[in-house]
């Protein structure tokens, strides 16, 4: 389990986490991005911007 940085709720960690993987907090529905693996760290995922994918 990891802690949501937005609401401090408990989030189930992915079985095989990868950096940049997105997980969702079940309590506040925030999208969280895996930013570190040892230890497992998450941060709020960046919002999709208009020029992404150009």
Automatic annotation (TrEMBL):
Source organism superkingdom: Bacteria
UniProt-listed Pfam families: Zn_ribbon_LysW
NCBIfam families assigned: lysW
The protein's name in its UniProt record: Alpha-aminoadipate carrier protein LysW
Organism per entry: Allonocardiopsis opalescens
Lineage, broadest ranks: Bacteria, Bacillati, Actinomycetota, Actinomycetes, Streptosporangiales
């Amino acid at each position: 389990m990891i802690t949501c940085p937005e609401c401090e709720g408990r989030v189930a960690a992915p079985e095989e986490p990868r950096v940049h993987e997105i997980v969702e907090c079940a309590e506040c529905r925030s999208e969280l991005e895996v930013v570190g693996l040892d230890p497992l760290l998450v941060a709020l995922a960046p919002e999709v911007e208009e020029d992404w994918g150009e």
